[in-house]
Amino acid sequence: MDPNAIIDSYVGDVVRHLPRRQRTDVARELRSLLREEVAGRAADGGRPVDADVTMELLAAFGRPADVADRYRPAGFTVIRPSDAPRFTWFALGGIAVIWLITLPAALLGVPPVVGWEYGADAWWGRLTVWWFGPGLGAFWWPGVLITFTLLSVLATRRRESVTTAWAPTPAPVPRNAIDRDLVNRPLGVLFLALALLGASALLALPWLGSWAPDLPEPVLAALALDPEFLQWRAPWLLLLWAAELALFIAVLLTGRWGPITQAVRGALDLVFIALLLWWVLGGPIFATAAADETTKFILVAFVIAIAVDAVVALRRAATGRRLVRTAAAPL
Amino acid sequence: MVDDAGQLPKLEQDLRKGVLVLSALSRLRTPQYGYSLRQELARHGMPIEEGTLYPLLRRLEGQGLLESHWQADDGPPRRYYRLSPQGAEAYRELTSAWGSLVSVMDVLLNENDHEEE
Predict the structure, then answer these.
(1) Which of A10, A26, A136, A257 has its CA 20 to 30 A from that of A1?
(2) Residues A251 and A224 both lie in one domain
(3) What does the pLDDT read at residue A175?
(4) Which residue stretches of chain A are H helix?
(5) Contact between B51 and A67 using a beta-carbon 8 Å cutoff
(6) Distance from CA of A322 to the nearest CA of B (A)
(7) Which residues in chain A are closer than 8 Å to B62, comparing Cβ atoms?
(8) A234 and A320 share a domain?
(9) A79 belongs to a structural domain
(10) What is the second-level CATH architecture of the domain B15-116?
């Protein structure tokens, strides 16, 4: 085979991976250089310029896609190595959660397809319908994660490029980016004040009629709490709030979260979840059905948010304990 | 312990990678085309794979450190590279940094030799 034809084919394969505006120029130069390299290699070995020498050179030069990579400037990282395990857990864990919720519903609920008689109520029919519906559809989750990660990386790169254009020194790193356990005291106090205000409003709800007598009767009726709920399930909230208040004041005083306070936060979160589930499953909360359903829907959303906080707190507590043990261990 | 068959060549390759740009810049005060530059570096004991050197020249040109032009004297047309004013400045600074690095490494390595004795 003609060595020049082999080189032309190889060069064509390399520039295929490059931006269009570079292709002609790089192809011209690379072709010229490779021909000289082949001639030089053949002369050094006392061999003719043939297909064998050409193939040896091109094999050493590298795969066309790899060579094209070397012509490009360094790219940018979409997922940093330190984030990769967490990202994988989020992406695959999300699919698993969607499957865990949708699969039992598809297998045990009403037949998922109306008007489809054959196998519609058999397990394999339901499984098929599930797979081509929510099963495959669950892959939207990693897609969403990737899309938002890309947007975040692009925004960060854009911000950094703008910053370096005019700032002589890089922007200082926020303290809580280095020390995530650090507590922002002014924000913490504000949060505490708002939480106390919200708690007071909730505690006043059973006596709404006496401190806001001008409210229309339908509103008062809609916000009337169930007497059984008020007597048995509601009072526990006061104990829990008192414990959380004590914890938060302790954290504000020390100025940072530690392994013990994180563990207490995680434990209180778990108790809170148990209490909210009892509220949701243990009977009506409000006297009217509409208010009751809406409230329970919101409480379920709270349960999910608190569960996430519990996982974060317990993980940080475990990491903190491990670090303390490692520091105390003899070298 | 370093595995001679596996890790050592890789470590040496990483070491050489650090001086690749400086060695290429050092030979481009006069115009050179890719093949002649590679031959000259190899003659001075700095062999660089062709698949590494040629893309590197393009990247350095993209960064404004090199200038290039096509020229055909008594052979096929070739692309000649030479230092741009910005590249000459970068070369001076890198040479100075290299001098400091060599001094520091000399001290570090000699101290190690004395400790071993």
Answers:
(1) A26
(2) yes
(3) 62
(4) 3-15, 20-45, 51-61, 64-71, 84-108, 123-130, 136-137, 140-166, 175-178, 185-204, 208-211, 217-222, 227-228, 236-254, 259-281, 289-328
(5) yes
(6) 30
(7) 73
(8) yes
(9) no
(10) Orthogonal Bundle (1.10)
